[in-house]
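Q: I'm writing up a methods section and want to include an example of the input and output format. Could you take the sequence below and give the corresponding predicted structure tokens, formatted cleanly so I can copy it straight into the document?
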Amino acid sequence: MVMKASLQLKLGQSLTMTPQLQQAIRLLQLSTLDLQQEIQQALESNPMLETSEDDDQTDPAAENNEHAANATESSAETAPEPSTDWDESENGPDWSSENDIPDNIPDDLPVDTAWDDIYQSAPAPAARNDDENDHDFETRNSPTETLQDHLEWQLNLTPLSERDQAIAHALMDAVDERGYLTTPLEEIHSGLLDENEEDPLELDEVEAVLHRLQHFDPPGVFARDLQECLLIQLNQLPPDTPWLAQARLVITHYINLLGNRDYAQLLRRSRLKEDQLREVLALITGLNPRPGDVIDRAEPDYVIPDVIVRKHNGRWRVELNPEIAPRIRVNASYASLIRRADSSADNTYLRDQLQEAKWFIKSLQSRNETLLKVATRIVEHQQGFLDHGEEAMKPLILSDIAQAVEMHESTISRVTTQKYMHTPRGIFELKYFFSSHVSTENGGECSSTAIRALIKKLVAAENSAKPLSDSKIADILAEQGIKVARRTIAKYRESLAIPPSNQRKSLI
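A: Here is the clean output for your methods example:
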């Protein structure tokens, strides 16, 4: 056996992201709240960074740049406009603004110079007025009252013996978020029973305390099923309430027919006329089948929009929200302490911190530019939605915006995730404006969002006695040139939380 030695040469390519690029990508995909936390951490860890609060001072260099920017805007206004509805000069971001930082920033500053003497700070909004933002501090930071807290507060105001108090707490522990008692009374009784006592607890005592608790607010709480919940609410109404006795009759004996919406059978068995049954159903539908939802609400989720869209002189304008980030700049005092040709530990530390500060400011600037550029293209594409609503939404995918701004789809995905746009029609996530399409008869395309809006509109205008089926809705859309299968209509209807036609049928 002969062994031969050989030498192989391989050539390959690999992409390596620099720390600056990694930081820019990380900041790009952060939400507004996460970005504010990141900025705060950078301000605390890097002495070279500071917030700018000297808004009253005017920088001569900034004034010159402002005059130059105004001249650029005036020249752009005289240029021909491609569209009557879109103002490219007003909406298009100015990438050569006064706040741009040159790419060739040297590592060293000239002797006896400060940072602001040569370079401008990063784009920054106006300073916040703390007095204006503190008025709703208690509202935003107060803990949310739960159903258990509400019931405990009422129990403390109710005169009960220690024995009944123990029973009441056991019953409260068995109440779910809807307000229903989920544990059988027998099981609660067995858990509280102590046979060694002289007077053992009886089941009747538990039932008595339960009836006492069923008078608590909200009406219907501590019910064991839907029927009992509705009856509790009816019993708390004034005795002279119209159709009260008939409502009790329907709920007590014919609740299954009511749930199945079998109104023909319900009319025959209850011996009520159609107009009478309509009044009874109006009274029943005014009751709350989930009483716990009135109290136990989720904590509100506050959304800070990243971009703001306004209509000015008949044209839509896109601008960054000035509240998404504080004013950030390099601390001129610390930057002036850096000495050339000094390799001491302190000077090296200041150099490193200055470099990190420059990277951070440039990453923030890049994030804002990319966000504004993407939002501008989205608004340019979805002007119909801003003018006419969801029915005018156009199909849009990530690749369309990626080609328009000359970026990768992954970058567009990062930009549109957890970023919000404030429009006259509300606050929407940027991903809301992206939707699939359905072909039309004339060769065009219709957005799935527009189809959902049409379905919602048709259901809202339907006759409640004869609701539209999924097949009928598909036929109506086909008459408008939109071919959608019945199963697709059902999928869109379920996404809108609209029940099927048999559950939407009503006499009211």
